[in-house]
Automatic annotation (TrEMBL):
The chain crosses the membrane at residues 7-34, 46-66. It holds the Pfam family DUF378. This is DUF378 domain-containing protein. It comes from Rhodopseudomonas pseudopalustris. Keywords: Membrane, Transmembrane, Transmembrane helix. InterPro entries: DUF378. The keyword Transmembrane applies.
Length: 82
C-alpha cells in the first residue's frame, strides 16, 4: 500500500472518530488537543483548521482512489465476461 493511502486512511479514521465523539458526547477531540479557536490561541486554532482541512482532503483523495479502483474492477470484470 502506498504511503499516501496509509496517511490519508489514518486521517480519515481520526476524523471519523472525532465526529463519533462529537455526535455521542458533544466532545471535539481535535479542538481539545489543538485549541478551540479563542483569540489567545490563534496558533492552536490554525492547527485545528489544518487538521480539519487535511482530513477533508484525505477523504477526497480516498473517494477518487476508490472510484478509480471500482472503474478498473468493473472494466476487468467486463473483459472477462466477453
Amino acid at each position: 500500500m502506498r504511503i499516501i493511502n496509509i496517511v490519508t486512511l489514518l486521517l480519515i479514521i481520526v476524523g471519523g472518530l472525532n465526529w463519533g465523539l462529537v455526535g455521542l458526547f458533544d466532545f471535539d477531540l481535535v479542538s481539545a488537543i489543538l485549541g478551540n479557536g479563542s483569540a489567545e490561541t490563534a496558533t492552536s486554532s490554525l492547527a485545528s483548521r489544518i487538521v480539519y482541512i487535511l482530513v477533508g482532503a484525505s477523504a477526497i483523495f480516498q473517494v477518487t482512489s476508490l472510484s478509480r479502483e471500482i472503474s478498473a474492477t468493473s472494466m476487468s470484470h467486463e473483459a472477462r465476461t466477453y
